[in-house]
Design a protein that fits this description.
- It is a single chain.
- By secondary structure, the protein is α/β, with parallel strands linked by helices.
- Helices cover 38% and strands 23% of the residues.
- It is built from nine helices and 15 strands.
- It has helices at residues 14-26, 40-47, 58-63, 79-89, 103-116, 131-142, 166-185, 273-298, 308-327; strands spanning 5-10, 30-36, 53-54, 69-72, 93-95, 121-123, 148-156, 189-196, 211-217, 222-228, 236-243, 246-250, 258-260, 264-266, 331-332.
- The strands form three sheets. A seven-stranded mixed β-sheet has the order 12-11-7-10-9-8-15, with helices on one face.
- Helix 7 crosses helix 9 (308-327).
- The longest helix is centred in the C-terminal third of the chain and has 26 residues, at 273-298.
- The chain is globular and about 55 Å long.
- The structure holds nicotinamide-adenine-dinucleotide.
- Nicotinamide-adenine-dinucleotide binds next to helix 1.
- Its EC number is 1.1.1.18.
- This is Inositol 2-dehydrogenase.
- It comes from Actinomycetospora lemnae.
- It holds the Pfam family GFO_IDH_MocA_C3.
């Protein structure tokens, strides 16, 4: 192996091209040698300027001799086959969320990795690398606040495409809260309920936007999530922990605060998720590259962050969340035993 590990990036749309840029400009110890996308034009647009080979077939890209590790940023429906191919090739993989689109297939991926005896799968739950989330997790785990009782989360997007219906809001947006809640509370989620509220006039017919989602953790701690994806304002992700001996809040957009003539003051709200979590995506990439290099050199684990179990847990929570939306009932996640 050269000093730098050689990466194939599968799917170079919005997220994949961001990862290519991160790997090329801001990450040490890795370079992109191969890109693969169902759109040949898109693959060349991203791959040509950095001298990466374009390989049409993702399976061929994974198996290629000039590829040591893989970043998957294709749509969720393609992840299962591509992650399994990485496992069979023995190559570390950073897979964008979701790990797979169903809990059963995600569990099967976790079991396959366990059988192989080597952790090769990292899942792109980048909030764990955000400085505020990491600090909040450490504060909770440190015990100063006492036992966590409630977590209040708000997840607001300015606008989304028409296809973002109530179920997709759970799978695509609340999935981040599923992982954040497990990360912050340090325990599994046992049940999910959803209350559909009055929809904004911006929501297509039949779509409940916003909704209130409730997770019940195994300890009984509660997680409330306001999911609202058509605010028309900006990107707002806030989390407040309420514990026995205090509370703590992150996501306040503490940018420059201005004071103006006329007696008003204000600041700016982060416009989108790349602006809000740019540092987290880049830190996730650097930590994964470092872990992948170490794993390739040692033949051992190649993960520094959420893994296949976390991908499975998020899939199980989202599956319960979708059932809760459809049936209007409290749904237990029924997660498998980890052992
Ligand atoms: N972590 C995050 O915050 C975050 C944010 C956005 C998206 N994502 C995830 O990243 C992934 C990609 O999302 P996106 O917004 O970049 O989508 P996108 O549509 O912008 O890009 C997907 C790309 O994959 C290509 N593609 C489709 N099927 C393929 C296949 N089978 N093999 C190879 N290429 C294929 C498409 O042509 C496209 O260029 C999704 O899993 C999504 O959930 C994560």
């Amino acid at each position: 192996m050269n000093d730098e590990i050689r990466i194939a990036v599968l799917g170079v749309g919005k997220m994949g091209s961001f990862h290519v840029e991160s790997l090329t400009r801001r990450t040490r110890g890795a370079r992109v040698t191969v890109v693969s996308d169902v759109s040949d034009e898109q693959a060349h647009r991203v791959g040509d300027p950095i001298g990466a080979r374009v390989v049409a077939d993702p399976a061929e890209a994974i198996a290629a001799d000039d590829v040591d590790a893989v970043v998957i940023a294709t749509p969720g429906s393609a992840h299962e086959a591509q992650v399994l191919a990485c496992l069979e090739a023995g190559k570390p993989v950073l897979c964008e969320k979701p790990l797979t689109t169903e809990a059963a297939t995600a569990a099967a991926v976790y079991r396959r990795e366990t059988e192989l005896g080597r952790r090769l799968i990292q899942v792109g739950f980048m909030r764990r690398f955000d400085r505020e989330y990491a600090a909040l997790q450490q504060m909770i785990a440190g015990g100063d606040l006492g036992a966590p009782l409630m977590l209040h989360c708000a997840h607001r997007n300015p606008a989304v495409p028409e296809f973002f219906d109530s179920e997709f809001m759970i799978r695509d947006s609340v999935v981040h809260e599923a992982d954040s809640a497990r990360f912050l509370l340090g325990e599994e989620i046992a049940a999910v309920s959803v209350v559909r509220g009055r929809p904004t006039a911006e929501a297509p017919a039949g779509v409940s936007d916003p909704m209130l989602v409730l997770f019940e953790a195994e300890s009984g701690a509660l997680v409330t999530i306001e999911i609202f994806v058509r605010t028309g304002i900006a990107y707002e992700v806030r989390t407040e922990i309420v514990a026995e001996r205090g509370s703590a809040l992150i996501g306040l957009d503490q940018n420059v605060v201005t004071k103006r003539a006329g007696g008003t003051w204000g600041g700016t709200i982060t416009p989108d998720f790349v602006a809000r979590f740019g540092q987290a995506y880049d830190d996730q990439m650097q930590r994964w590259v470092d872990a992948a290099r170490a794993g390739i050199a040692s033949g051992g684990d190649a993960v520094d962050g959420p893994g296949s179990w976390d991908g499975y847990a998020a899939a199980a929570i989202c599956e319960a969340g979708v059932a809760a939306v459809v049936k209007g009932e409290r749904i237990e996640t029924g997660m498998e035993d980890r052992s």
